[in-house]
Design a protein that fits this description.
alpha/beta, four-stranded parallel sheet, globular
């Protein structure tokens, strides 16, 4: 989802010399293959958008996999980019790097000030490692390696797995299937009270290109929409976008996760970037993309 959005943004900006590899063409967990790729291609600028991602269920069920795979991928990329003389690298992390009870909105300065949310601690630790490695390479060797920490993302080519996806794509699929089945009820995990922020992948892509244009970007910077909704409100918005006519029930025996996750985006705003896609518009666009992908048999699940 994120990689394809960045490619669309690069192509729209007129870039033609884009070096791409699919997962089948290059296994980023294979250190030898990644080293060979960098030695041959010698890229000047690297954008690391690769990650093993998932929602509460996936993160809580497979923490060892999330830690091992994410650390392996990002260290192979960052280390080889540095060794092969890349002039610049942008590492994409996640807002889950910040403490569970961080001040709201969460500023970059709250990193490592208290404990993480347990349900996604492994993923957060991996992303913190990538961020810090870029920061330390920049400090020790003077290379322009920096990071962006996006909020919850959605958009074309998202992962719609019924158990392991993030909340928004999971809701789109659930409401879509309920609509087709004419099911009277859709049940959701938790109380519906936690607050979440969402950013369309195309907005993140515009932020990535903006950050790469800066001569002296921050070591890491938050990228978000600057607004938030409760999970219950999100469900109603998805219900409307999909056109589902049944009712919503909450299963309060299931975990809520972090109570609130709103990024402070004042730093990136001070550099001249603003998000452009409102959530309601983005959801309508994303559902249309979902239908197109489903019809083509191209849904990621």
């Amino acid at each position: 989802m994120v990689g394809s959005a960045i490619v669309r943004a690069l192509e729209a900006a007129g870039y033609e010399n884009i070096i791409l590899r699919t997962h089948r063409e290059l296994d980023l967990m294979d250190a030898e293959s990644v080293a060979g790729f960098f030695k041959v291609e010698q890229p000047e600028v690297v954008i690391d958008a690769a990650a093993k991602v998932g929602g509460i269920h996936a993160n809580d069920s497979y923490p060892a996999d999330f830690l091992r795979e994410n650390i392996s991928m990002q260290m192979n990329i960052i280390d080889n980019a540095w060794k092969c003389g890349a002039k610049r690298l942008l590492f994409l992390g996640s807002s889950c790097i910040y403490p569970r009870m961080a001040p709201q909105p969460m500023p970059e300065s709250c990193l490592l000030t208290s404990e993480l949310e347990k349900t996604n601690e492994a993923y957060a630790l991996a992303k913190i490692t990538g961020l810090k490695y870029c920061q330390y390479l920049r400090r020790q060797y003077g290379v322009l390696f920096h990071s962006a920490m996006p909020t919850n993302l959605y958009g074309p080519h998202d992962n719609y797995h019924p158990q392991n996806s993030h909340v928004l794509p999971a809701l789109i699929r659930r409401f879509h299937e309920a609509k087709l089945a004419k099911a009277p009820v859709v049940t959701m995990w938790g109380t519906g009270k936690p607050l979440r922020e969402f950013l369309h992948a195309d907005d993140l892509a515009s932020a990535a290109l903006h950050l790469l244009s800066l001569d002296n970007p921050p070591d890491w910077v938050n990228v978000g929409s600057g607004s938030e909704v409760t999970i219950a409100e999100l469900a109603e918005l998805v219900k409307e976008a999909v056109g589902y006519e049944g009712r919503i029930e909450m299963d309060e025996s299931k975990p809520d996760g972090t109570p609130r996750k709103l990024l402070d985006i004042s730093l990136i705003r001070s550099t001249g970037w603003e998000p452009k896609i409102p959530l309601k518009e983005g959801l309508a666009r994303t559902y249309r993309d979902f239908l197109s992908e489903a019809q083509a048999g191209a849904l990621r699940d």
